[in-house]
């Protein structure tokens, strides 16, 4: 996977060549990714689904993250990113069902990871039962949903913890039910400004 080729860009999103995933993270080269946030509306309440990164992930294992995300390879467009949803979550989606949120300039310098992405970001609105998910065990070990209003309060500092509900798949295949409180440190540390931006973009599509 580290040897997969991705397109690289300058900071103004002008293409400048191709490099491996390992090189883009080692050198901090700008590259493209696909992010999709899934939201459901149940009895007039919006819920945000998040994935639990598996414990074998090199970066941020066992933390809750964007519903589905991944790199776009050198030959792919944003529309090809739909494969991430199908591969990671086992959910059948068409690109036309996604609501574009724009291209987010995403920058991380954390624990030796230099990640500079032009993230093609989308919202997918669909009510999903947890048993509809078929997870890619090498990437995702669970799915939760949170009240979107609570998620906003968590990242604005109004609340220190929020309720999460969902499931986790243990290495032996056992499915564990999740219904508990969670704090910020259980979520991938994308940065408060990133979460605030995403929250605003999603809110605009839900209003």
Features of this protein?
207 residues; alpha+beta; Nucleoside Triphosphate Pyrophosphohydrolase; 4 helices; 11 strands; globular
Q: How would you portray this structure in words?
A:
The protein is α+β, with helices and mostly antiparallel strands. The protein has helices at residues 21-27, 82-89, 148-156, 192-206; strands spanning 5-9, 15-20, 30-42, 45-53, 64-65, 68-71, 99-110, 113-125, 140-147, 161-169, 175-183. Helices cover 19% and strands 43% of the residues. Strands 1, 2, 3, 4, 5, 6, 7, 8, 9, 10 and 11 form an 11-stranded mixed sheet that branches. The longest helix is centred in the C-terminal third of the chain and has 15 residues, at 192-206.
Short description:
This protein has 207 residues and is α+β, with helices and mostly antiparallel strands. The chain has one domain: Nucleoside Triphosphate Pyrophosphohydrolase, CATH 3.90.79.10. Helix content is 19%, strand content 43%.
Q: What is the fold's blueprint, element by element?
A:
Blueprint: E1 5-9, E2 15-20, H1 21-27, E3 30-42, E4 45-53, E5 64-65, E6 68-71, H2 82-89, E7 99-110, E8 113-125, E9 140-147, H3 148-156, E10 161-169, E11 175-183, H4 192-206
Parallel strand pairs: 3-8
Antiparallel strand pairs: 1-2, 1-3, 3-4, 3-6, 4-5, 4-9, 7-8, 9-10, 10-11
Q: How confident overall, as mean pLDDT?
A: 95
State the helical fraction: 10-25%
Provide a count of the helices.
4
Architecture per CATH nomenclature, i.e. the level-2 architecture: Alpha-Beta Complex
Shape: globular
- CATH topology, by name, is Nucleoside Triphosphate Pyrophosphohydrolase
Helix-strand sequence: EEHEEEEHEEEHEEH
